[in-house]
Amino acid sequence: IGVTIVAFGTSMPELLVSVTAAARGASDIAIGNVVGSNIVNIGLILALTGLVLVIPIHIDLIKREIPMVIGASILVWLMALDGEISTMEGGLLVLGLILFN
Question: Which domain holds residue 70?
Fold first, then answer.
């Protein structure tokens, strides 16, 4: 639970930017912010941490996390095919987050 709280805390700036951008009709900024943040978190932060020290990877975690990340990415892609992510679809994504954690 502690890791989830820290994750929410560090994601708040991105959340605020995305919500503000979407409310102003700049959904491209909202999507770009989300995608860019994930690229930096995975590519840069993980890489820099790996340069400093060895990161142990537990195969059980990988077996659970990777399919979920791929599945969530496909789900968001399918939801966005009609040009919008509705309130119901957003709620479904939040429910998925709660169930996953």
Answer: 57-101
